[in-house]
Amino acid sequence: MSASMLPYILLSCLLLSVQAQNCSVREIIRYTNRLLEGSSLSCPCRETAVSSCSCLPIAEPGHELACFVEGTEHMLKNNASSMPIIARLNQAFQTQLDRNLCESLARGHQCQYKTKGNVKEFLNKILRTYQAIHK
């Protein structure tokens, strides 16, 4: 390796480490906490019955971002009261997914889940996921 390559390699390593950290963790935790404080989100999720409650995907490990995008898109269509915050979350998740910014949360662009939950369960999943990254 020549000495002229060293600055390039160091810059590449720096950029990769910055990209890996660019998960907007604090911002997502703040917005999610606001949504959790904001309303009565704990009505039961019944996929079979007609209900005013949203049933949102509770992601399998490695598929969180795709499910967070899908869930927040559903919330945008059905929840006018917190629209600006949900839109910001949705945009953050979509950006992270498109740019591979949080690799541990996005093994694919498809949402994979075994269960669905109500809005409160979905938001708690987001919160736990990003708090684990923040540690």
TrEMBL record:
InterPro entries: IL-9. One of its GO terms (molecular function) is interleukin-9 receptor binding. The keyword Coiled coil does not apply. GO terms for cellular component: extracellular space. Residues 1-20 form the signal peptide. Keywords: Signal. This is IL9 protein. The gene is Il9.
